[in-house]
Amino acid sequence: MLEQSLIQSYADELFDALSNQTMVEPLTDRSPEMTIEDAYAVSNLLLEKRMTINKEKIIGKKIGVTSAVVQNMLGVDQPDFGYLTDAMVIDESEVLSLSKKMIQPKAEGEIAFVLKHDLIGPGVTASDVIRATDFVVPCFEIVDSRIKDWKIKIQDTVADNASCGYFVLGQNVVSPRDVDLSTCGMVVELNGEIISTGAGAAALGASPVSCVVWLANTLGKFGVPLKAGEVILSGSLVPLQDVKPGDYMSVSIGGIGRTSIRFD
Description:
Helices cover 29% and strands 28% of the residues. By secondary structure, the protein is of the alpha+beta class. It has one domain (57-263): Fumarylacetoacetate hydrolase, domain 2. The radius of gyration is 17 Å and the shape is globular.
């Protein structure tokens, strides 16, 4: 376990990097002994600073690194989680300024769950998730890393709030009972050309529902619930895509709908 003073120092460093759009050297290069628990302690302190200094409010949670293709891209072997705040929301009508708001962005298509009831683990099942979900909606998450050149181990991305950046939700809302979340197909386009396809089963090898189950039960170990009204990002079903100013991306999900985002 790392000393508390070092955990605080890493949280301060990541907050400064987030605020100033700068990168830091991988934490695991400097502290190879860092555990997953240490990393979540850093993440919690980073969140506290965002809430205290920036007055951000928690509006949901995200699970990251759920598909094999993304795990392979980033060189990690398990999911992680982070917190969503009101400062991360981008409306479909907005243009996301990469130069002003991000460092080394990548976009990924996801299915977002919006809850109508709390979910508190451990012991949460897939049926519990379906019952607690108000609706699902197509989503783009634009992830970012404060860790230089995305040279991350699982501890680095956990400490960095699961590499959170921004997200946009589509306008189509569908009951999770009205769509097969295991077989629904996803098509992602970049500047009018299809760049990737995926299916719900890419999420933890089963379904986005399995991801929310994992998240609820994992957070339950920390005494943290998934709350009614929160947005839960269930993880990417396709490879991460580097984006640059001028790009336009859209995602279509069978049985759910589509959303899009433009960058400058």
